[in-house]
Specification:
single chain; alpha/beta; five-stranded parallel β-sheet
Protein backbone atom coordinates (compact mmCIF):
# COMPACT_ATOMS: atom_id res chain seq x y z
CA UNK A 1 0.00 0.00 0.00
CA UNK A 2 1.73 3.11 -1.23
CA UNK A 3 1.40 6.03 1.11
CA UNK A 4 1.70 9.74 0.47
CA UNK A 5 3.12 11.44 3.57
CA UNK A 6 0.69 14.38 3.29
CA UNK A 7 -2.37 12.32 2.48
CA UNK A 8 -5.10 11.96 5.09
CA UNK A 9 -5.95 8.27 5.05
CA UNK A 10 -8.76 6.48 6.81
CA UNK A 11 -8.21 2.73 7.00
CA UNK A 12 -11.24 0.47 7.35
CA UNK A 13 -11.42 -3.29 7.77
CA UNK A 14 -14.08 -5.02 5.67
CA UNK A 15 -15.02 -8.64 6.29
CA UNK A 16 -18.60 -8.90 5.05
CA UNK A 17 -20.18 -8.53 8.49
CA UNK A 18 -22.94 -5.98 9.23
CA UNK A 19 -20.66 -4.06 11.60
CA UNK A 20 -17.91 -3.86 8.96
CA UNK A 21 -20.46 -2.37 6.54
CA UNK A 22 -21.34 0.27 9.14
CA UNK A 23 -17.61 0.87 9.68
CA UNK A 24 -17.18 1.36 5.93
CA UNK A 25 -20.01 3.89 5.80
CA UNK A 26 -18.56 5.72 8.81
CA UNK A 27 -15.07 5.79 7.27
CA UNK A 28 -16.37 7.26 4.00
CA UNK A 29 -18.32 9.99 5.84
CA UNK A 30 -15.34 10.84 8.04
CA UNK A 31 -12.90 10.91 5.10
CA UNK A 32 -15.24 13.42 3.45
CA UNK A 33 -15.06 15.65 6.51
CA UNK A 34 -11.24 15.63 6.69
CA UNK A 35 -10.72 15.68 2.91
CA UNK A 36 -9.11 12.27 3.09
CA UNK A 37 -9.06 8.98 1.25
CA UNK A 38 -10.37 5.60 2.34
CA UNK A 39 -8.36 2.40 2.19
CA UNK A 40 -10.74 -0.55 2.55
CA UNK A 41 -8.85 -3.66 3.53
CA UNK A 42 -10.06 -7.24 3.34
CA UNK A 43 -7.70 -9.76 4.92
CA UNK A 44 -7.66 -13.46 4.24
CA UNK A 45 -5.91 -16.04 6.32
CA UNK A 46 -5.90 -19.78 5.85
CA UNK A 47 -6.89 -21.55 9.07
CA UNK A 48 -4.42 -24.18 10.18
CA UNK A 49 -1.69 -22.88 7.87
CA UNK A 50 0.77 -22.33 10.69
CA UNK A 51 -0.20 -25.32 12.81
CA UNK A 52 0.93 -28.91 12.55
CA UNK A 53 -1.99 -30.05 10.41
CA UNK A 54 -2.57 -29.31 6.76
CA UNK A 55 -5.33 -26.78 6.04
CA UNK A 56 -8.64 -28.21 4.89
CA UNK A 57 -9.14 -25.40 2.37
CA UNK A 58 -8.03 -24.69 -1.18
CA UNK A 59 -4.65 -22.96 -1.13
CA UNK A 60 -5.24 -21.36 -4.55
CA UNK A 61 -7.01 -18.14 -3.62
CA UNK A 62 -7.73 -16.07 -6.70
CA UNK A 63 -6.84 -12.56 -5.54
CA UNK A 64 -8.26 -10.90 -8.66
CA UNK A 65 -11.57 -12.64 -8.08
CA UNK A 66 -11.48 -11.59 -4.42
CA UNK A 67 -10.80 -7.98 -5.42
CA UNK A 68 -13.73 -8.02 -7.87
CA UNK A 69 -16.01 -9.49 -5.20
CA UNK A 70 -14.88 -6.82 -2.74
CA UNK A 71 -15.49 -4.07 -5.30
CA UNK A 72 -19.02 -5.41 -5.86
CA UNK A 73 -19.60 -5.57 -2.10
CA UNK A 74 -18.49 -1.93 -1.72
CA UNK A 75 -20.83 -0.90 -4.54
CA UNK A 76 -23.72 -2.74 -2.87
CA UNK A 77 -23.02 -1.06 0.48
CA UNK A 78 -22.05 2.46 -0.63
CA UNK A 79 -23.44 2.90 -4.13
CA UNK A 80 -21.35 3.17 -7.28
CA UNK A 81 -20.19 6.78 -6.85
CA UNK A 82 -18.93 6.45 -3.29
CA UNK A 83 -17.45 2.98 -3.91
CA UNK A 84 -15.42 4.39 -6.82
CA UNK A 85 -13.57 6.71 -4.44
CA UNK A 86 -12.51 3.91 -2.06
CA UNK A 87 -9.18 2.17 -2.60
CA UNK A 88 -9.42 -1.57 -2.08
CA UNK A 89 -6.75 -3.90 -0.78
CA UNK A 90 -6.99 -7.67 -0.44
CA UNK A 91 -4.16 -8.82 1.81
CA UNK A 92 -3.01 -12.20 3.12
CA UNK A 93 -2.14 -12.30 6.81
CA UNK A 94 -3.47 -11.93 10.30
CA UNK A 95 -6.33 -9.37 10.18
CA UNK A 96 -5.28 -7.42 13.29
CA UNK A 97 -1.63 -7.25 12.23
CA UNK A 98 -2.50 -6.16 8.69
CA UNK A 99 -4.82 -3.41 9.96
CA UNK A 100 -2.22 -2.21 12.46
CA UNK A 101 0.45 -1.93 9.73
CA UNK A 102 -1.99 -0.23 7.35
CA UNK A 103 -2.97 2.22 10.08
CA UNK A 104 0.54 3.56 10.59
CA UNK A 105 0.35 7.28 9.81
CA UNK A 106 -3.41 7.16 9.16
CA UNK A 107 -5.98 9.62 10.50
CA UNK A 108 -7.86 6.65 11.95
CA UNK A 109 -8.46 2.93 11.71
CA UNK A 110 -12.14 2.04 11.59
CA UNK A 111 -13.36 -1.45 12.43
CA UNK A 112 -16.66 -3.10 13.16
CA UNK A 113 -17.35 -4.12 16.73
CA UNK A 114 -17.59 -7.78 15.76
CA UNK A 115 -16.68 -9.61 12.60
CA UNK A 116 -17.88 -12.81 11.06
CA UNK A 117 -16.47 -15.11 13.71
CA UNK A 118 -16.44 -15.19 17.44
CA UNK A 119 -19.05 -15.45 20.12
CA UNK A 120 -22.40 -13.70 19.78
CA UNK A 121 -22.26 -12.36 23.35
CA UNK A 122 -18.78 -10.87 23.05
CA UNK A 123 -18.78 -7.08 23.36
CA UNK A 124 -15.83 -6.74 20.98
CA UNK A 125 -14.39 -9.11 18.43
CA UNK A 126 -10.79 -10.21 18.80
CA UNK A 127 -9.62 -8.08 15.86
CA UNK A 128 -11.31 -4.87 17.02
CA UNK A 129 -10.05 -5.41 20.54
CA UNK A 130 -6.46 -6.05 19.42
CA UNK A 131 -6.45 -3.07 17.05
CA UNK A 132 -7.89 -0.76 19.72
CA UNK A 133 -5.15 -1.73 22.14
CA UNK A 134 -2.17 -1.54 19.78
CA UNK A 135 -2.83 1.03 17.04
CA UNK A 136 -0.55 4.03 16.63
CA UNK A 137 -3.47 6.22 15.54
CA UNK A 138 -7.04 6.79 16.72
CA UNK A 139 -9.36 3.78 16.40
CA UNK A 140 -13.09 3.96 15.81
CA UNK A 141 -15.14 0.87 16.61
CA UNK A 142 -18.56 0.89 14.94
CA UNK A 143 -21.52 -1.22 16.00
CA UNK A 144 -24.04 -2.45 13.45
CA UNK A 145 -27.41 -0.74 13.33
CA UNK A 146 -30.24 -2.64 15.00
CA UNK A 147 -32.39 -4.79 12.73
Amino acid sequence: MDRDVFERRVVVGVDGSPSSYEALRWAVRYAGLVDGTVDAIAVWELPGLYGWSAPAVDMDVDENEARQAMRQELTDVLGADAAGSVRTHVVHGNPADVLLRAGEGAEAVVVGSRGRGGFARALLGSVSQHVSQHASCPVVIVRPTSP
